[in-house]
Amino acid sequence: MTVRQPVRISRRVEHESFGGHRLEQIFGYAPTSRQPISTLVDDLDACAIDGGRISHVAAYIDASFQTRAYVSEGTTVVHVLWTAIGTRAEVLAGLDPYTGSELTGYEVDPGDTVSVPKRVPYALGAGIVAVVFGSARSQPTTDPAAVSRSPLPRPPNHGLNLFDRFNRRTICAAREGLLLERWKISCPLDLSLKPDRWHYLTNLVEPVALHWPGGSMLLQRTESRFLPPGMDRITIVPDGLGYILIGSIPDLMPDVVIPLRRAGYDRAAIASLGVPPSLLE
């Protein structure tokens, strides 16, 4: 029997005008050239097996300057990792209800997540480094007719916390077809995985070790791995303190709603993550 293991993800480096050098200077990414970097795009579809396809996308973005406006045919979540000191950092999303044309700015801090629904335009303001995870690829747009006229339905949120011993799980966004979690790890974390699903894992800070039945590896800063269907568990061991993001396609009731209710969160708090009202009745 073949033992599933983490898969290295093909990564594309983009050099658009809004980029800079913060992914190298702050997050320790090792570049192959001296050009400013705007985006590190992890190609999840290249990891699909058995002839399948993965529409989800993941990317690190350095918005040293404001990005252009983007729109997606799926849900997109922007998880803020860093903001410049002394300035108002904003994610712009949803058309301003008063002007009907300009994007609305939402002030954000590190750890905040903005969930952007299908066809709602968004942009990152200057002085932000973020991870973007979406259920479909985002495309630049300048055509008002191609976007939703709706404002952003929910403001940025800082997520809801659950604990596994001394490790903290923050559920950042939980919507149909998309789940994003941030883990703060201070001791070995044993994760049980649903073997019929894939998971996207990226390391934000200090190196962490990954152990699974049959192997182990060290994951450096900003490195990502695809955990394919068939993996049922993995252990993550930090070097001191670790921070990772995990993206996946959830079963919202057992993965999100039930654990949060048991932890004492009310309906409004859980709904703030994007959970459909029908699951909270």
Would you write up a description of this structure?
This protein has helices spanning 22-25, 252-262, 267-271, and strands spanning 7-8, 11-14, 39-42, 57-63, 70-72, 76-83, 90-95, 103-107, 113-116, 122-124, 128-134, 138-140, 160-164, 167-175, 178-185, 189-192, 199-203, 208-212, 215-219, 224-227, 233-238, 242-248. The radius of gyration is 18 Å and the shape is globular. The strands form 5 sheets. A 7-stranded antiparallel sheet has the order 1-20-17-22-15-14-13, with helices on one face. Strands 2-3-4-11-6-9 form a 6-stranded antiparallel sheet, with no helix packed on it. The protein has a 4-stranded antiparallel sheet with strand order 16-21-18-19, with no helix packed on it. The chain is mainly beta.
The fraction of residues in strands falls at 35-45%
Mean pLDDT: 93
CATH class of the largest domain: Mainly Beta
Largest sheet: 7 strands, antiparallel
Secondary-structure arrangement, i.e. CATH architecture of the largest domain: Sandwich
Number of helices: 3
Gyration radius (Cα, Å) is 18 Å
CATH-wise, what's the superfamily of the largest domain? Jelly Rolls
Low-confidence stretches: none
Instruction: Tell the overall outline.
Output: globular
Strand order of the largest sheet: 1-20-17-22-15-14-13
Tell how many strands the DSSP assignment holds: 22
Helix amount:
under 10%
End-to-end gap: 43 Å
What's the layout of helices and strands?
Blueprint: E1 7-8, E2 11-14, H1 22-25, E3 39-42, E4 57-63, E5 70-72, E6 76-83, E7 90-95, E8 103-107, E9 113-116, E10 122-124, E11 128-134, E12 138-140, E13 160-164, E14 167-175, E15 178-185, E16 189-192, E17 199-203, E18 208-212, E19 215-219, E20 224-227, E21 233-238, E22 242-248, H2 252-262, H3 267-271
Antiparallel strand pairs: 1-20, 2-3, 3-4, 4-11, 5-12, 6-9, 6-11, 7-8, 7-10, 13-14, 14-15, 15-22, 16-21, 17-20, 17-22, 18-19, 18-21
